[in-house]
């Protein structure tokens, strides 16, 4: 859902003001993301996911654990909108879309290199949508000689003389803090994203705690570790084998409280334990109730991009959370 902009909004997010007083103050105390990082880790049982993948390989060729995790994150965001917030210049914003940044391998050899991609995902998307979107991305980027807009922009800035590169980066960071950075930079920047995900399990190691970047709008970084078999007791005391993977999450505590994070983690686990729920769209998509003057905003026509005469209201598809 796109809404009309109000004074104080950014082109990539709506200003959040309808929150408890401490959350309006905290960003002025913890000014940087390095000040406000919180760390969380867990082991996720993936026995059901692996069985699910085997059962649905024919209808969704190429389906992998990574796709299920991404679809589970997408569904969680659709139900827990505070996770799609970010803080810039000590102000909280609700992102007006959802995108996800990740590194993918180019080519089939070790020397093929990697590239950063940032697809925008629809909040009503299903697992099949995620598989299709990433299939297209992999096809576009798997050729070593090809480069995307993100690669090109990074290479241009990175190859500038030291003094000029530092000036350009500092200027962009200043412009971003004051909401005047060029939109095309935001579009290609992997650091301006709702979620950053890395699958280091693909190289056979455990997950790491990865910092969230000062530049950009990333609020949550998720690292997935290698899959492993563990021997655990069942409810009757019998020793059985189960499959697990480790995850580690670094989040910005300024966007929501610990209870909200905990409930969101439980919801994420629910989708991972029952991936069949990801085959159909969500019953409702929840809109951030903290958005400033939410009820006074007009809807934006998704086809024309123009403001309609209809103001925001809850409906069969959208509700306030």
| Large-scale geometry | globular
By CATH, the superfamily comes out as Chloramphenicol acetyltransferase-like domain
Tally of individual domains: 1
Overall structural class, as computed from helix and strand content, comes to alpha/beta
Whole-number average pLDDT?
91
- List the secondary-structure elements in sequence, H or E: EHEHHEEEEHHHHEEEHEEEE
Helix share, percent: 25-40%
Radius of gyration: 20 Å
Q: Which CATH class is shown?
A: Alpha Beta
Describe this protein's structure.
By secondary structure, the protein is of the alpha/beta class. 30% of the residues lie in helices and 24% in strands. It has a single domain, classed as 2-Layer Sandwich (Chloramphenicol Acetyltransferase). A hairpin with an 8-residue loop joins strand 5 and strand 6. Helix 3 packs across helix 4 and helix 3 packs across helix 8. The radius of gyration is 20 Å and the shape is globular. The relative contact order is 0.21.
């Amino acid at each position: 859902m796109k809404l009309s902009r109000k004074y104080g909004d950014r082109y990539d997010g709506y200003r959040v003001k309808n929150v408890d007083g401490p959350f309006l103050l905290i960003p002025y105390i913890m000014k940087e993301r390095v000040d406000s990082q919180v760390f969380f880790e867990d082991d996720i049982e993936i026995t059901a996911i692996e069985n699910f993948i085997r059962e649905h390989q024919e209808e969704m060729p190429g389906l992998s654990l990574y796709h299920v995790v991404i679809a589970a994150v997408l569904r969680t965001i659709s139900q827990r909108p505070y996770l799609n917030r970010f803080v810039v210049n000590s102000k909280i914003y609700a992102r007006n879309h959802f995108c996800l940044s990740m590194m993918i391998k180019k080519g089939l050899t070790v020397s093929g290199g990697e590239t950063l991609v940032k697809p925008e995902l629809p909040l009503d998307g299903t697992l099949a949508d995620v598989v299709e979107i990433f299939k297209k991305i992999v096809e576009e980027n798997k050729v070593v000689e090809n480069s995307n807009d993100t690669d090109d922009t990074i290479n241009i800035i990175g190859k500038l003389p030291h003094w000029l590169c530092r000036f350009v980066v500092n200027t962009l960071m200043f412009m971003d803090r004051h909401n005047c950075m060029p939109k095309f930079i935001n579009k290609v920047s992997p650091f301006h994203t709702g979620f950053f995900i890395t699958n280091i399990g693909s190289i056979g190691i455990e997950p790491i705690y990865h910092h969230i970047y000062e530049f950009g709008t990333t609020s949550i970084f998720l690292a997935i570790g290698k899959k492993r078999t563990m021997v655990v007791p069942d409810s009757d005391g019998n020793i059985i084998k189960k499959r697990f993977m480790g995850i580690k999450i670094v989040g910005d505590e300024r966007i929501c409280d610990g209870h909200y994070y905990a409930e969101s983690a439980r919801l994420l686990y629910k989708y991972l334990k029952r991936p069949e729920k990801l085959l159909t769209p969500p019953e409702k998509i929840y809109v951030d109730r903290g958005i400033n003057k939410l009820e006074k905003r007009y809807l934006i026509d998704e086809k024309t991009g123009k403001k309609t005469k209809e103001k925001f209201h809850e409906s069969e598809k959208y509700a306030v959370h």
